[in-house]
Amino acid sequence: MSIESILRRGAMLFVFLAIPLFCGSSEAGMRERVFETRLSNGLKVLLLEDHKIPLVSVQVWYRTGSRNEEFGKTGISHLLEHMMFKGTKKVSADAFTRMIQENGGQENAFTSQDYTGYFENLTSNRIGIPLTIESDRMHNLILRESDFQSERMVVMEERRMRTDDNPHAYLMEQVDAAAFQTQPYHWPIVGWMDDIARITLQDLKEYYRNHYSPDNSILTIVGDFRKEKLLPQIERLFGRIPKGRPPAAVHYSDPPQTGERRLAVNREAQLPAIILGYHVPNLRDPDGYVLEVISSLLSEGKSSRLFVDLVKEKQLALDVDTDYPLLSTDPGLFTVSAEAAPGKNVSDVEKALEDQLERLRREPVGESELEKAKNQLEAAFIFQQDSFFSQGMLLARYEIALDWKAADDYVPSVLRVTVEDVLRVAKLYLAPDKRTVGILNPLPLEPGKVPPSGSPLKENIIRKAENAHDSE
Questions:
Q1: What is the pLDDT of residues 328-351, one digit of tens each?
Q2: What does the pLDDT read at residue 455?
Q3: What is the rounded (10 degree) CA torsion for 401, 132, 118, 55?
Q4: Are 363 and 426 in contact (CB under 8 A)?
């Protein structure tokens, strides 16, 4: 499941929002509602005014994530995210959190493959607080050896708990590593354990200096403000930050896969699981919208093809899901995952999944089923904009993937998808010889050990979502 799926299903993994639902609903598109400007130092500013309630979401997004790391230093983006809460010359670590909480707001951060984001949600009459904090730590972060040593241990423990001790997360990590050979999506967001251990404070300082600059970031503000009053404040706080020298934007794409890749993971677990991964294009290709529809056809709701066949009728699986990263910076993986039901063989689950994919490649989908899938996507896209935070996130993610204005193209592009498009795209991308198959073979649990929680569905969310930083 993608970030879009998380938002539309309400399973916000890393967001703790106080902003009410539907505060930003509007029939007008983003192009009519958003004001865009760029400061002289390169900072992109996106402002969306909405005066329905006196709240605001302030977000700073850096165009750097795990894809921008280098071999041997994976996980440095996520580690720096943690260190961003350790204070500056003006604001201590404790003062940062206290300032937001005492003013009734929430703050947090997240790291993904493509970006790192920071946000504060609070009442609009206190908008100056997050603007001051974010502009300060964009340029004046203090990186101390003591903080670095302790936080690196925190991240290593986080990796141990979320990945090494979680068989489903570990399986997804291995599928990515096998599927991507030249793309940096090969390595995990949290990083390989040995890499985390070898990162130095100097490495972190260089990464901060090279990637955290105004010309490599986006400031999005959504809510109750007047841009005429806000723009001078933004210019005063952010405009004085010197322009940096961020690395040139490079797009990566793996060479065409010429045959199936298969791996097995033997880990302590209760039930077998399987993940099928297929290389697919993203938002930059019109076929991306067809893949959105295919994902909905296969796994959106209890009337979807995979749920009806594998869970309801054959009772082969406890859980099934698909994930499609439309807004990835580079082409990603379309994944199909399932957790076998007790007593069921994972090979039978795999056959049932392949039968459904073959049906999609061979038989034209019915018009009514196609319309249902498109209607679901249209409604979900609207409902995911249920808060100021969600709208700010939507703008930034589209801007990083392509252009924030492309958000207005989503619904029309989905509604244009035809029966012929679904058949063509399924044949082109979801072929057996183009897939990477990962299978979890469960080992008996040690006596007294608590079984790990999670499923391929949940781990698909987690690995595509963000390694959230809980600043509390």
A1: 999 999 999 999 999 999 999 999
A2: 56
A3: -90
A4: no
Q: In the predicted model, what is the mean pLDDT of residues 126-150?
A: 96
Other Cβ atoms closer than 10 A to 180: 22
Identify whether the C-beta of residue 184 lies closer than 8 Å to the C-beta of residue 66.
Answer: yes
Same domain, residue pair 214 and 277: no
d(CA 427, CA 337): 19
What pTM was estimated for this model as a whole? 0.91
Q: Do residues 319 and 174 both lie within one domain?
A: no
Number of domains in the chain: 2
Question: By the 8 A CB rule, do 437 and 263 touch?
Answer: yes
Q: HSE on the CB side for 17, CA within 13 Å?
A: 23
Beta partners for 108? Answer: 119
CA 48 to chain centre: 22
With DSSP H G I counted as helix, E B as strand and the rest as coil, what are the percentages for the chain, rounded to 5?
45, 20, 35
Q: Which residues of 81-93 are buried (b: 16+ CB within 10 A; e: fewer)?
A: bbbbbbbbeebeb
Give the residue numbers spanning the domain of 287.
261-465
**Distance, CA of 357 to CA of 318 (rounded, Å):** 19
Residue 249 domain-assigned?
no
Q: Do 344 and 446 share a structural domain?
A: yes
Residue pair 215/42 in contact (Cβ under 8 Å)? The answer is yes
Contacts of 279 by beta carbon, 8 Å cutoff, 6+ apart: 179, 254, 256, 257, 331, 332, 333, 334, 429, 434
Distances (CA, A) of 322 to 307, 334, 380, 384: 11, 7, 16, 18
User: Cβ(190)–Cβ(155) under 8 Å?
Assistant: yes
pLDDT digit string, tens, across residues 239-290: 999 999 888 888 889 999 999 999 999 999 999 999 999 999 999 999 999 9
Is a pLDDT exceeding 50 seen at residue 9? no
284 lies in the same domain as 229: no
Q: Within a domain: residue 266?
A: yes
State the sign of the Cα–Cα–Cα–Cα dihedral 123, 127, 132, 133: positive
The enclosing domain of 384 has a CATH number of 3.30.830.10
Cβ 299 vs Cβ 306: under 8 Å: yes
Secondary structure E strands in 200-285: 217-223, 261-268, 273-280
At residue 93, the pLDDT reads 86
